[in-house]
């Protein structure tokens, strides 16, 4: 018999407060304070060359007006859409394939989760070398033999495709794991009943799998969108946002504004914008699929 | 059991709130003790003064102090600490990470680092104008060091570290422009090192044709074109050689005060264009297809693998390969020639110093200054050239040392030295926004090399520059 819950139930709320206080303070220290500090920074003139005090919304105004920001926003949206859609689709396909009782399923599952333990920076380097048109297996050997004589990382559109490929490789495992767990939670008797009724793969997928997996899919989608929005490491290592600004997403731009243009105030404004964008994206996804989650 | 006395029961015994708090405090104390135990010796050390240095090139810079791995505490380091009267700690990092740490430290005025890494391509200027660095000549007068004397150093390397006449940095290793070429390949095709940009174009064209005919897996040229500030150092050398002056602003002002006084507007679509176009066109036509993402590391790698016949104007990037490449011809047949002369009669530039400065917020300035003096002084430079065998020394008295003469030959060292003496460190203007401009120009070059129209790229650059200079108040 557990005595503690009953005793805790008896404790009035004010008795809980001292016990909860360290947790609340810890949470405030690691989330609330940095958030508020960032907000404060975004309203300050924190440029090395011309430090000033309170500048109101000037940093936001300058940021939103700059062509670099608009371009980076579009690049981010392309990257997020492509990477999320493909990694989610691929993760689902793999999860569906490996739910079936195939030979070597365990080994395949293990292999598929391997990219999860590779740090994105390492993944970025690996893909950079693979795509290199000077020494890479893909860039220097495979593509030229297929009659494609361009440098993947030196051509704007291909560079975007290359970073998306690297990101998909790095993140699909996570999607796969989440969706596999979701698939395994679906009661097998539903599939058996469907089979007896003569339902094929697509009918089963449409009428049983996807409706019952919807909640998990939404969670996976939200996590993936947020992750893609904040991707920095893979892109930075592979292209540094280039060639030119072809793969310069908002995170790369933020880093540049802060550490190359020496304007920490405007970099903070961009970070606040990204925070709002992230919250908006998550809220919109939750709102649209509320009944599923 | 009342609420006041206990919050629960386990194994028949009461756990009182007081006991709970005592246990909690005990555990927290023990955890804090354990987590800081490894720092106790450091805490004891901090009673003495500490000079913190931050730099990159671990294992390569100051090997006599920090060993070949950069982590040792050698006898030489201990001796220097005794002399300086402080513990010297060095923090290494990747160049970008170090730059970021220096920025945040100087911006937040915490003085965590006493001796900071700078660079003559933006940091010296930005931090110097912002008043975040100490005037080093003042320190030299106040507290002379036996290790460093300005008379020992090539004046051009010092000029590069002055902002409005004030010396904010002292150079450790540095370089001027040059053209590295493969003598064996030039000989095979009957070529000689090009003296002018016109000859350069002709030479590269010949190399390209011959490589295609003979199916040689080499690029005629390697230069860097990655987005960011890096290619600007070389690209601006072309702009200077074609225009004959640092063609950024009307009339070619070289300082913030001059720009302000003349209200000089940017001319990125004017005199800046020929040099920019030449740089981009050469890379498009004769460089690697991935040149728009290449940094100095890629230049070095291409040279190391014997995949490039010419490297310019930052020929420095070929030196490591010349000592360690697995391809014998790279080691024995790489040669240095003077940087070609542009249509203006001036040489293509590329000039940089690995400089160290003294933070204005250092708490131990005297000790930090003495440390900096050693780190950029003659003894350190001597050790650097003896151990690395690179000719990137900052002092004429060390240029023809036995080690360097034996490794590179007197003739090549003369070419290297001439490049320093004939350089113009002010081939780009010195003003507080330099870093931002360097990044924008380098990124514009990357965009153009990757195929964007040069006119469009330069028009965007001009728009940015005008807006930025107006915003910074230059034309009020």
What topology emerges from the helices and strands here?
The complex is a heterodimer of chains A (293) and B (476).
Chain A: H1 4-10, H2 13-42, H3 58-65, H4 67-97, H5 105-117, H6 120-131, H7 137-145, H8 156-184, H9 188-196, H10 201-229, H11 233-239, H12 250-259, H13 264-288
Chain B: E1 6-10, E2 13-16, H1 17-37, H2 40-45, E3 50-55, H3 63-66, H4 75-84, E4 87-92, H5 95-108, E5 115-117, H6 123-129, H7 136-142, H8 155-159, E6 162-163, E7 166-167, E8 170-175, E9 179-182, H9 183-188, H10 197-213, E10 219-222, H11 232-243, H12 256-262, H13 272-286, H14 296-304, E11 308-311, H15 319-324, H16 328-333, E12 334-337, E13 352-358, H17 365-375, H18 378-388, H19 396-399, H20 402-408, H21 410-422, H22 434-449, H23 454-471
Parallel strand pairs in B: 3-4, 3-5, 10-11
Antiparallel strand pairs in B: 1-2, 5-13, 6-7, 8-13, 9-11, 9-12
Model description:
The complex is a heterodimer of chains A (293) and B (476). Chain A is mainly alpha-helical and 293 residues long. Chain A has helices at residues 4-10, 13-42, 58-65, 67-97, 105-117, 120-131, 137-145, 156-184, 188-196, 201-229, 233-239, 250-259, 264-288. Helices cover 75% and strands 0% of the residues of chain A. The radius of gyration of chain A is 24 Å and the shape is globular. Chain B folds into 3 domains: 1-27, no CATH class; 48-168 and 352-422, Periplasmic binding protein-like II (D-Maltodextrin-Binding Protein, domain 2, 3-Layer(aba) Sandwich), CATH 3.40.190.10; 179-350 and 426-471, Periplasmic binding protein-like II (D-Maltodextrin-Binding Protein, domain 2, 3-Layer(aba) Sandwich). Chain B has 23 helices and 13 strands. In chain B, the strands form 4 sheets. Chain B has a 5-stranded mixed beta sheet with strand order 4-3-5-13-8. In chain B, strands 10-11-9-12 form a 4-stranded mixed beta sheet. Chain B has a two-stranded antiparallel sheet with strand order 1-2. By secondary structure, chain B is α/β, with parallel strands linked by helices. In chain B, helix 11 crosses helix 13, helix 13 (272-286) crosses helix 22 and helix 22 (434-449) runs antiparallel to helix 23. The N and C termini of chain B lie far apart (78 Å). The relative contact order of chain B is 0.15. Chains A and B meet through helix 1 of A and strand 1, helix 5, helix 6, helix 14 and helix 22 of B.
């Amino acid at each position: 018999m557990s005595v503690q819950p009953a005793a805790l139930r008896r404790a009035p709320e004010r008795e809980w407060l001292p016990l909860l206080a360290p947790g609340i303070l810890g949470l405030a220290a690691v989330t609330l304070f940095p958030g508020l500090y960032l907000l404060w920074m975004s309203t300050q003139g924190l440029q090395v060359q011309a430090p000033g005090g309170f500048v109101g919304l000037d940093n936001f105004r300058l940021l939103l007006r700059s062509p670099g920001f608009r371009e980076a926003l579009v690049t981010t949206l392309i990257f997020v859409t492509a990477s999320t859609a493909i990694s989610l689709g691929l993760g689902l396909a793999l999860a569906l394939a490996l739910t079936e009782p195939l030979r070597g399923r365990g080994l395949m599952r293990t292999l598929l989760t391997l990219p999860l333990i590779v740090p994105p920076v390492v993944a970025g380097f690996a893909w950079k070398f693979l795509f290199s048109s000077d020494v890479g297996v893909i860039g220097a050997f495979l593509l030229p033999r297929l009659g494609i004589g361009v440098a993947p990382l030196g051509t704007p559109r291909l560079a975007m495709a290359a970073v998306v490929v690297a990101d998909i490789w790095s993140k699909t495992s996570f999607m796969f794991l989440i969706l596999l767990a979701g698939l395994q939670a679906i009661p097998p008797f539903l599939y058996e009943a469907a089979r007896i009724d003569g339902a094929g793969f697509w009918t089963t997928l449409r009428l049983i799998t996807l409706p019952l997996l919807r909640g998990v899919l939404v969670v996976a989608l939200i996590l993936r969108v947020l992750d893609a929005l904040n991707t920095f490491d893979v892109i930075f290592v592979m292209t540094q946002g280039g060639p030119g600004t072809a793969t310069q997403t908002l995170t790369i731009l933020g880093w540049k504004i802060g550490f190359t243009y020496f304007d920490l105030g405007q970099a903070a404004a961009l970070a606040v914008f990204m925070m709002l964008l992230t919250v908006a994206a998550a809220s919109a996804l939750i709102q649209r699929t509320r009944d599923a989650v | 059991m009342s609420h006041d006395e206990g919050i629960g029961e386990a194994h028949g015994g009461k756990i009182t709130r007081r006991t709970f708090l005592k246990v909690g405090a005990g555990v927290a104390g023990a955890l804090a003790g354990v987590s800081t135990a490894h720092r106790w010796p450091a805490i004891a050390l901090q009673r003495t003064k500490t000079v913190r240095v931050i730099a990159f090139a671990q294992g390569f810079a100051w090997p006599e102090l920090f060993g070949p791995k950069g982590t040792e505490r050698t006898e030489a380091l201990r001796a220097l600490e005794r002399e300086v009267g402080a513990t010297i700690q060095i923090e290494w990092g990747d160049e970008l990470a170090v730059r970021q740490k220096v920025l945040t430290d100087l911006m937040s005025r915490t003085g965590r680092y006493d001796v900071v890494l700078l660079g003559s391509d933006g940091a010296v200027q930005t931090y110097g104008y912002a008043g975040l660095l100490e005037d080093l000549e003042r320190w030299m007068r106040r507290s002379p060091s036996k290790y460093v004397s300005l008379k020992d150093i090539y004046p051009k390397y010092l000029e590069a570290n002055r902002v409005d006449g004030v010396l904010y940095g002292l150079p450790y290793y540095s370089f001027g422009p040059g053209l590295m070429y493969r003598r064996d390949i030039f000989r095979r095709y009957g070529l000689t090192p090009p003296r002018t940009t016109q000859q350069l174009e002709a030479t590269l064209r010949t190399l390209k044709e011959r490589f295609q005919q003979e199916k040689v897996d080499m690029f005629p040229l390697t230069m860097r074109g990655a987005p960011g500030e890096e290619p600007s150092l070389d690209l601006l050398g072309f702009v200077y050689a074609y225009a004959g002056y640092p063609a950024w602003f009307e009339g070619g002002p070289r300082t913030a005060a001059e720009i302000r006084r003349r209200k000089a507007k940017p001319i990125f679509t004017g005199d800046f264009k020929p040099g920019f176009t030449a740089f981009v066109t050469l890379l498009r036509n004769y460089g690697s297809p991935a040149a728009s993402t290449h940094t100095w590391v890629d230049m070095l790698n291409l040279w190391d693998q014997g995949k490039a016949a010419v490297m310019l104007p930052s020929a420095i990037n070929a030196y490591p390969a010349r000592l360690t490449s697995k391809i014998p011809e790279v080691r024995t047949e790489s040669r240095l020639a003077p940087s070609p002369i542009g249509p203006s009669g001036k040489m293509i530039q590329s000039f940089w110093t690995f400089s160290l400065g003294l933070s204005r917020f250092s708490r131990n300035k005297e000790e930090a200054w003495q440390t900096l003096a050693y780190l950029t002084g003659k003894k350190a430079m001597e050790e650097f050239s003896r151990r690395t065998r690179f000719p990137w020394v900052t002092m004429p008295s060390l240029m023809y040392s036995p080690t360097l003469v034996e490794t590179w030959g007197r003739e090549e060292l003369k070419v290297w030295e001439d490049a320093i003496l004939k350089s113009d460190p002010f081939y780009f203007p010195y003003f507080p926004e330099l870093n931002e401009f360097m990044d924008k120009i380098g990124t514009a070059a990357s965009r153009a090399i990757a195929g964007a129209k040069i006119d469009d790229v330069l028009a965007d650059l001009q728009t940015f520059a005008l807006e930025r200079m107006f915003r910074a108040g230059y034309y009020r």
